[in-house]
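Lab notebook page, bench 4
Experiment: in silico fold of construct C2
Operator: M.H.
Input chain length: 100 residues
Purpose: comparison with the prior construct
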Amino acid sequence: MSCAAIPIGELVPHGPGMTIIDRLVEYGPKRSVATVAIERTSRFFADTGVPAWVGIEYMAQTIAAHAGYEARLRGERPTIGFLLGTRAYRSEVAEFSLGA
């Protein structure tokens, strides 16, 4: 089964209210890609989009999905992890706009 066919809730052990990525679309041992569609109902949506600082959580959840997929390949359940911080995070946009 392709990673894209697996519901994100089976890979990321967050509750549905805090799972903010939509799907793991590509997996590789050293790199994975996830997607999120910015909608008015998106968690953290304000006015015209989602503030760029939320990007760090998009990345953290992509890492969680990557680890969750690897656990699934081993026949295990995903475990909870924590992003403790980053040395640098920079975004080229101030927000992720509606529809992005």
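Observations: The first strand starts at residue 23 and ends at 28. The CA atoms of residues 11 and 69 lie 6 Å apart.
Next step: discuss at group meeting.
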